User: Fold this.
Amino acid sequence: MWKWLHPYANPEVSYHFTGKILPWLSAIAAILLLIGIVWALAFAPPDYQQGDSFRIFYVHVPAASLSMGIYLGMAIAAFTSLVWQFKLADATAAAMAPVGAVFTAIALITGAAWGKPMWGTWWIWDARLTSELILLFLYLGVIALHNAFEDKNLAGKAAGILTLVGSINLPIIKYSVEWWNTLHQGATLSKLGKPSMSLEMLWPFILCFLGFALLAGVVICIRFRSEILNRNSIRPWVRTLVLAQTPLPTNKSTENN
Amino acid sequence: MVFMLEKQLMQFETFSAFLDMGGYGFYVWLSYGISTALLLTLIFSSIMHHKQVLKNIAKRLQREDKLRQVRQQRKNSQANITTEVTE
Assistant:
């Protein structure tokens, strides 16, 4: 049943596959983000309570949910790599960490810039904000571990264990607004069945969310390809690929001698 | 102006009102500005990193090729002591 997947487990095939889809992904991401952001900034109605500060929502919420989504993906990749010794999963996890860290930072910064006018403070040590900050530190730890070892398998193992231990933070972030008293408002969208949002706000949000998600996918693809090259640098296919892109001046040195 | 034409659709009547964001301009533009800057930095550094990886591998291959040539030459020069090697 899963046989069609097997070729993609080959680093060479996935390198060329991601190379082929990258331009398309980038184009769709750029179009979605352009339409979504312009719509969010200029055409979406202001919130009846929060006024135009609500426009921060269109960046803040996609960034925050992607910060958790990417971590979940990274945890799945780390688990796959630890249990089945699947090498490409390590490369995927290593590619995801910096992207997740940037989205976590964006969620924290836009949250602060939204909190100042709405709550009167940039920062408060409540459950939602603190657990999201811990998520940023987890990402930084995973990045540091991936870079700490020359041996990429060892690095992947260490980073994978940290990722899995840290995944306990995900449900804490998600349910923090329900478990503890907090300034942070509850979920706007994930109430299944009837989202508490008007369609005029929902559409630009969906465009922004998909745009940011695709952008994350694009950057993860770029970094995934670098990871594959780094981990397979002695393979013949990498050799031919590198030689095709940067021809070596080998003939020169033979003539000189 | 585009802004005047689409008055009905757009939420802001003038460009300065758009920049002001109903008094929240600083916070809104701060959020969008920092987000854009961070994402552009991430994209740019990822592309540069990929190029650097390719360059590093090319450099290593070059070094290995040179080593191989030196070894080959040494072998050849040892062979030259007994017989002339024609290429």
